[in-house]
Design brief:
The protein has 215 residues and is an all-alpha fold. It has 6 helices and no strands.
Length: 215
C-alpha cells in the first residue's frame, strides 16, 4: 500500500500517533506502580497495588482494541496495517507482563522483594519511559531516524542489563535459599519480571523494522 501510486499523494491518517502515545503512557503508569509496589511488603498493600495495576492493564487492552478498530475503518494508514497492529499489540504485551508480575506478588505473597527484584522493576520503568519517548519520535522519524534508533539501542541495552541481574540472582538464589517454597515463589516472580523486560525489547525490534522499511 505504501508504495502504490495513489498512496503517495493521499494524506495519511495521523490519529494513530496519539493513540499509540496514549498506550505508551498507560504502560509508563503501570511500570511506575509496579516499581512503587515493591517498596511495600504487607499483603494488603500488595493487593491494593495489584488492583491498581490490573485497572491499568484493562485500560491498556481497551486502548489497544481502539487502535485495532481504527485500523479496520481507516483507508490510508501511516504505516502498513500489520506494523501498527504489531506495535500496539507488543506494547500491550508489556503492560500484560507488568500485571502478571503484580498478580504473582499478590498471590504468592513472598518475603520482602530484594534489591534484584527492585532493580528489574526499575529497568522495566526505564524501558517504559524509553518507549514513550519513541512514540514521540514516531510521526517524524523519516526525516531523522537517529533519535528513534537511539531509543531502540537503549531498549536493547536495558534488556541486557536485566538478563545479567536475573542470571546473577538465580545463581545466588539456589546457593542461599533453604526454604523450597519461598524459592519457588520468588523464582516465579523474578522470571515474570525478566520476561517483561524481554517484551519491551521486542517492541524495540518492531521499531527497528519500521526504520528499515520507512526511513
Amino acid at each position: 500500500m505504501k508504495n502504490s501510486f495513489f498512496s503517495r499523494f493521499t494524506p495519511k491518517e495521523p490519529k494513530f500517533f496519539p493513540l499509540l502515545k496514549q498506550l505508551s503512557e498507560i504502560l509508563t503508569e503501570s511500570a511506575h506502580l509496579l516499581e512503587e509496589s515493591l517498596t511495600h511488603d504487607s499483603p494488603a498493600e500488595r493487593a491494593d497495588y495489584y488492583q491498581r495495576i490490573k485497572a491499568k492493564e484493562r485500560e491498556g487492552d481497551e486502548q489497544a482494541h481502539r487502535i485495532f478498530d481504527e485500523l479496520g475503518t481507516t483507508f490510508i494508514t501511516p504505516f502498513d496495517r500489520e506494523d501498527i497492529h504489531d506495535l500496539a499489540s507488543s506494547i500491550d504485551d508489556v503492560i500484560d507482563g507488568i500485571n502478571s508480575s503484580a498478580k504473582r506478588i499478590n498471590i504468592y505473597n513472598p518475603r520482602p522483594i530484594g534489591s534484584s527484584g527492585k532493580e528489574l522493576a526499575s529497568l522495566i520503568t526505564q524501558e517504559a519511559l524509553c518507549l514513550s519517548e519513541a512514540m514521540d519520535q514516531l510521526e517524524d522519524f523519516r526525516k531523522d531516524p537517529s533519535k528513534l534508533r537511539g531509543c531502540c539501542t537503549r531498549l536493547h541495552d536495558l534488556e541486557n542489563q536485566a538478563d545479567d541481574v536475573y542470571e546473577l540472582f538465580i545463581t545466588h538464589l539456589f546457593e542461599e535459599e533453604k526454604d523450597s517454597i519461598e524459592l519457588i515463589k520468588i523464582k516465579e516472580i523474578m522470571h515474570e519480571l525478566e520476561k517483561t523486560t524481554d517484551s519491551a525489547e521486542r517492541v524495540g525490534k518492531i521499531l527497528r523494522n519500521l526504520i528499515v522499511k520507512y526511513a
